[in-house]
Amino acid sequence: MLGVEVEQLQLGPGGADGDRALALVDVGTGRVATAKHPRLWRSLLQCSAAPEGAGVRITLPDGKVVGPAADEELSAFLGRPVRLVAQRPDGASVERPDPLEVLEHGVEAEVEAPTLEIAQGTPGGSFVDHSPLHLVTTATLDHLGVEAVRYRPNLVIATPPGTAPFVENTWLGRDLVVGDVRLHLTLPTPRCSVPTLEHGTLPRAPHAVRGPMEQNRVEVTGFGVLPCAGAYAEVAVGGSVRSGDVVELA
């Protein structure tokens, strides 16, 4: 679902507190529901989710607000039985069609949808794609002409004028110090079909994946050569990150 922009994050080994803490699971398959499989789940991006106490507040496209005990309403909206869960099962997986196949054949096409185990690089029980944290620079976003919301980063780093796009590639293996926190950059972030889809009122944006496909296909250890934008990170030293904190490359 659509997320929220916040002024402060508390970061620990599992990433940002509250980030991807809940997920919808397809009752029929047992897999995590994600718009990575647009034919089945792209309407999730018409909903938004925000923290509310220890739970979550979900807003449907018609403005109706539901809480964490909304399996029946969410199933009716999505057209498939789902349940909201707060603990990632061992081996939790998603279906992830090749974004190029989706672009070529359309979001309604029945293309091959290989399964991918999520959170392989993250301790704890959250439903992150792979690593605890995902960041992207304004240099990359501005070059591609893509809104940050489409790439779903935890941190957007404002870079000085003249910074090369995809500068995140050059940070891999190094540390970033942000506020009280030290992050270790591990992998480039592969892009799936999600950024190309409608996000709330934002229209389709095929260039959000075509740009990385044409300009930044790089090796992602363990996964092959993939179109990437942004970087994954581990939290070496946890603490608070605030909007406006200075970022230093260590």
Automatic annotation (TrEMBL):
Annotated ranges, domain MOSC: 109-250
GO molecular function: catalytic activity; molybdenum ion binding; pyridoxal phosphate binding
UniProt xrefs under PROSITE patterns: MOSC
Matching SUPFAM superfamilies: PK beta-barrel domain-like
Name by which UniProt lists this protein: MOSC domain-containing protein
Organism: Pseudonocardia broussonetiae
